[in-house]
Every structure is written in structure tokens, then in C-alpha cells.
Amino acid sequence: MTGNWNNSNPPPEAWRRGRGVSPAREQDEAAGGHDRRVVPLDDGRIALGSVALRVFPKTRRIRAYLRWSDRGDTKEKYLGEVGEATRLENLRFAWTRARERGVALPDDREDARGSWASTVDTRATMRGNRSKDTKPEKRLRSQLHALGLRYNVGKRPVPTVRRTADVVFTKARVAIFIDGCYWHGCPDHYRPARQNGEFWSQKIHANQQRDADTDRIMAEAGWRVVRVWEHEDPSEAAQRIADLVRVVSPEPRVNVVST
Length: 259
Prior knowledge:
Restrct_endonuc-II-like; hydrolase; 6 helices; elongated; Endonuclease, Chain A; Very short patch repair endonuclease; nuclease; endonuclease
């Protein structure tokens, strides 16, 4: 790093955002793209991260923090001091450090820009801070609705257990989980990270263990679990779910009238 600033505070251009600069575009440029601003959460969800720079006059240093939102709560992780000549350079340095520490998704994977997924829509689930209502979820729900099925969204099948299913058929006791290809180790699309490979492999393995534990808990409570990969065709997945729901708990089909 080039900044010393032993006798004065860091210059504004090293840490303060300029007038007219879009915060989102600035963060995208510093991270190397919008889809590289990914912060993995503990249960396999993802959040959209951003780097904040703060000056502490007493030390005449710039400190960098990675920030994200988790279910409405703002979280942050201290990344250390930065000392480059411009704000953009400091943001880039901070993003690099976040990846080195495993706080953000590493950017040197072959699939870092989403090539692990087969479609643009699948890759789009990596973009943003959504723990629910992702495109794969909406499309599956739309197909289920078209088949005449009615359901609950984002509900705990077992109220006393903190495991939330994406789609729940209460009467049939069928719980649907839509799993992201990377975070749940899809056999078709998951590719191990080269940087901090052991860290990320352990994280994916922990997610898979949690999935297996969830399936066990649901089964012991009398629920059937269906897991749908985000790359699956939503119409095919919906038909598979509909067949199970109607066998387990036959219900009168709701007539869908086309207009």
C-alpha cells in the first residue's frame, strides 16, 4: 500500500466517494462485476455485499469493512487498513482481501461469473440479496399454481424447528426446498474453488449435511421432502411435486380457466 499519512488525515480522494458517482456501479467496478459481490451466509443463502471505507482521525488510517444485509439486519466484517491513492483502488484492495479471507465468494474460480449454471436465469439467482422469492422459486410456484395446486410460501413445516421450506403443502405434509447449484453442491454444476478451496469445500459440505439433517427431521415429523435444483425445468419439477401431493392427500383439483 502507498498511503502513509503520518502527519495528516488521508486525502478525500483516497476514501470519499465523489459527487455524482453511483454507489452500486462503483461497488460493481471495484468487485469486478455485480455477480462477484457475493457474500455467503451460514445456511446456504447469499447476500449482496459492499465495501465501506472509514477514516479514523486519531490513527490517520483508512479502515475497510465488508457490509451486507441478512433478513433486514445489517452485518459487517472488518477487513483491515487500506492505503492506496484513490478510493477505487482501496475498494478493489478490500474486495481482494475479503475473498482471501473467505468472507466473499472467491473470484478466481472458472465458474466465478456463473458458468456453473446452464442458463442466464440460473446465474441471476447469484445476483442480489434474496433469501426468498428468487426466480426459480417464482417459476416453480407459477407452474404449481397452473396445475391447480395451492400452497404456503416460506413456512416452517415443524414450527419448533428453524428450518423454512420454500413451498409447503400443509394438508399433504409435503415440503419443497429449492436448492442453489453452487451452495448445495449440485453434481452437474458445482465446481470446487481453487482459492481457499478447503474453506469453501467445508462450507458446501456443511450445507449438504444440514440438508440431510433437515430431511431427517422432516421425515421423523411425518413430512415428505422434495428437493428441486435451481437448474431444473420448473414445469417438470412441478408435475413431479403435483403427482406426489395428489397421491399422499388427494384433493379436488381447482379448475383453471383460460381467458
